[in-house]
Design goal:
The complex is a heterodimer of chains A (249) and B (194). Chain A has 13 helices and no strands. In chain A, helix 4 packs across helix 6, helix 5 packs across helix 6 and helix 11 packs across helix 13. Chain B folds into two domains: 90 residues; 75 residues, Arc Repressor Mutant, subunit A. Classes of the chains: A mainly alpha (249), B mainly alpha (194).
């Protein structure tokens, strides 16, 4: 194995690499003096900076509250410098300073984001299950690559909405993509679109078909029949999916 | 979690309700805390640890802050949970460093804070102090954003959390952090060569 790039070394130190890759890099470093020295230097630097930051302790709640209650002109000294740097303390100061209305507003926003997340999470699972049922041959792909597929699908969502204005965000696509209304019966249509797009994209990236309009259309028609898409839906698939695939190919 | 119900439970606990309600509140908050874990990128903290320990600790901290400051429980919980996660992340990172050192045959105990059973020598202490002073001076010359990124990272923030705090992207925070680390390293090198 060659010496890992800086980026890989960074991810290694951050503990963000998959276990198998971690092992490979550790093995390499053990036998490479250059990498070992580099790693040692970085760890040493981390340690030093860590000590610098650790010395800057967060003030107590009492101090933060009294800081929050002093006038802007009186906010001076070390504590001000600390709060400028420390997001934790800034958020407490904000809470201590906030009016009831601002706090209520924060709560409303937070609750809204949280409920969207819950719907999304539920929807991800529903979408995954739906796709599994619709596309048995690609179960492996779904299991191994759910995250990249998901981000692809999220991009796809934007494009579908852009290319297909009649697509009702609230009742169809959103459900399958996990934004809300997962129980909506119309989500099946969106499942077909997503599945078709994913499947045909996979054919293109596997080199089984060329990224040409005609080839893509032919593949779509074939998949649409397999998935039991009606005439109207098939027509829409032909209109909508090729531009998306061509864009991402 | 229903935020209003959570606030009410916390109020009742503050006014002396029994421990059972405390547990009930912690259970009720778990799904919200798991959401925060995901949103703020604290993936290295196992879910089990959150459901078994961190949830109840963060709820206790939040009730304490709420009690003394007259704030809604939910905003306190948001903050105290994040504090707990950052503390935990710092410990996990330290353990990770020890793991890396073991895997890569690096036997320098000074690389990990708190590691080693004996006090450093006077010489090591002086060298450490010099390095810390130098790092401080270099950091002072960094622009505000990059200084904040380094600070947050060392305090246990994750890149997704930083992206959220600074309204930036995960990759940008990561890039800035590593650019700065490289810069400081170069400066350190120059200093010791000179």
């Amino acid at each position: 194995m060659n010496c890992p790039s800086k980026e890989v070394m960074q991810d290694f130190i951050d503990g963000e690499l998959p276990e198998a890759e971690n092992q490979k890099i550790a093995e390499h470093i053990r036998s490479c003096d250059t990498c070992k020295t580099e790693l040692q230097e970085i760890l040493s630097l981390h340690n030093t900076i860590n000590q610098v930051v650790s010395e800057d302790e967060c003030p107590s709640y009492d101090l933060l509250e009294s800081y929050a209650n002093t006038g802007a002109n009186e906010k001076i000294g070390k504590i001000k410098e600390h709060i400028n740097l420390c997001s934790r303390c800034r958020s407490y100061v904000w809470a201590f300073q906030a009016t009831e209305e601002e706090l209520a507003d924060w709560q409303r926003q937070e609750e809204l984001t949280y409920s969207k997340f819950k719907a999304k999470d539920l929807g991800y699972n529903t979408a995954k299950e739906t796709l599994k049922k619709l596309l048995p041959a690609k179960i492996d792909l779904l299991e191994k690559g759910w995250e990249p597929i998901l981000s692809f699908v999220l991009n796809l969502k934007e494009d579908v909405l852009e290319n297909w204005p009649s697509f009702d965000q609230k009742t169809q696509l959103v459900g399958v993509l996990g934004f809300a209304e997962t129980h909506d019966p119309q989500t099946d249509a969106a499942s077909v679109i997503i599945t078709t797009t994913l499947y045909v994209s996979q054919l293109v990236s596997d080199g089984k078909i060329k990224p040409h309009q005609e080839d893509i259309e032919a593949a779509i028609s074939e998949v649409a029949i397999k998935l039991g898409a009606g005439k109207e839906l098939s027509k829409r698939l032909i209109e909508t999916v090729p531009p998306i695939i061509l864009k991402f190919s | 979690m229903d935020f209003e119900i959570a606030n009410n439970y916390a109020k009742q606990i503050e006014q002396g309700a029994d421990a059972e309600l405390h547990q009930k509140l912690a259970n009720m908050c778990t799904s919200y805390l798991l959401y925060l874990r995901k949103k703020l990128g604290f993936h290295c903290i196992p879910i089990k640890e959150i459901t078994r320990e961190l949830a109840i600790d963060a709820v206790s901290d939040a009730i304490m802050v709420q009690e003394r400051r007259n704030l809604p429980f939910t905003i306190c919980l948001h903050n105290t949970f994040r504090d707990r996660c950052r503390q935990r992340v710092r410990i996990i990172r330290e353990q990770n460093t020890i793991g890396i050192m073991g895997e890569c045959d690096i036997a320098d105990s000074s690389l990990v804070i708190g590691m080693g059973t004996h006090a450093p020598s006077a010489e090591t202490k002086v060298q450490n102090a010099e390095q810390i002073e130098l790092a401080n001076a270099i950091l002072d010359n960094h622009d505000r954003f990059s200084k904040k990124v380094i600070y947050q990272k060392m305090k246990g923030s994750t890149y997704p959390e930083m992206a959220d705090i600074f309204s930036s992207t995960l990759n940008e925070c990561k890039r800035v952090y590593w650019h700065d680390i490289t810069h400081i390293r170069k400066k350190f090198g120059q200093n010791y060569v000179n």
